[in-house]
Design brief:
This protein is of the alpha/beta class. It contains 9 helices and 8 strands.
Length: about 240
């Protein structure tokens, strides 16, 4: 990252944590509050997974997955109020949330070539924001530890597993997703994904040493957003 005067307007904020902890909703809220861009890196991995499945490539074949990933063209929005992502010109914003993608994304994300490709794109999105003197909130699982180790603020967002599962079930139901299942089934799936993401060889899910832990178990969305915004303003001296 280029040297710059610390300011909330140009802050680079990394929000990491396990699946279902509320990273997306919190990150969008923080970006809106501070007037920053927003990047959902999880959606990028899901989009590549969608492309892999579209091409009939087994997620268990790393070489074929890497080839499919390199052939796909991604476009995405960094507007927190207009979130979308496209693969080869096709809007897959809803499709990437289906169960087929959810079941395969950890395997696809574990392929080193996929991670290298997307990390490069993610860092490019940050450079593009800073080039026009605008900050960005980037959320994922290894942002503070790997993708943006020099981020101005790193947040590790956590919540009780049962709460995470209940929130994910509510989100799926509200979105009208056909694969909505019980909180118990979702909790098991979240545990499986957490284990897979934490044990992968390439950039495993890792809490950065200097990340601030925010526990959202007993907090509403507005309260978590306010907490992160407060941390950003304190860190930036605003």
């Amino acid at each position: 990252m280029d040297p710059r005067t610390p300011s909330t307007a140009t802050a680079v904020i990394a929000v990491d944590g396990p699946s279902g902890s509320g990273k997306s909703s919190v990150s969008r809220g923080v970006a809106r509050e501070l007037g920053l861009r927003y990047l959902d890196t999880g959606a990028m991995y899901r989009a590549i997974t969608w492309a892999v499945l579209r091409d009939g490539v087994p997620a268990s074949d790393p070489a074929a997955v890497a080839s499919a990933a390199c052939s796909a063209s991604l476009e995405w929005s960094t507007d927190p109020d207009e979130s979308w992502i496209r693969v080869d010109g096709v809007d897959v914003s809803r499709a990437i949330r289906e169960q087929s993608v959810t079941s395969a994304v950890s395997a696809v994300a574990a392929v080193p070539e996929v991670r290298a490709l997307l990390v490069d794109l993610q860092r490019g999105a940050v450079r593009s924001a800073l080039a026009v003197e605008q900050g960005i909130v980037v959320e994922g699982r290894d942002i503070g530890a790997v993708v943006l180790p020099d981020a101005d603020l790193k947040v590790w967002l956590v919540a009780d597993p049962g709460v995470r599962a209940a929130r994910r079930a509510a989100e799926d139901a509200a979105a009208g997703r056909a694969h909505v299942t019980s909180s118990e089934s979702i909790a098991a799936d979240l545990a499986r994904r957490d284990a897979a993401d934490a044990s992968r060889a390439a950039s495993p899910t890792t809490q950065a040493e200097d990340a601030v832990v925010v526990d959202a178990t007993h907090l509403g969305l507005a309260e978590v957003v306010a907490a992160v915004v407060g941390l950003a303003r304190e860190r930036m001296g605003a």
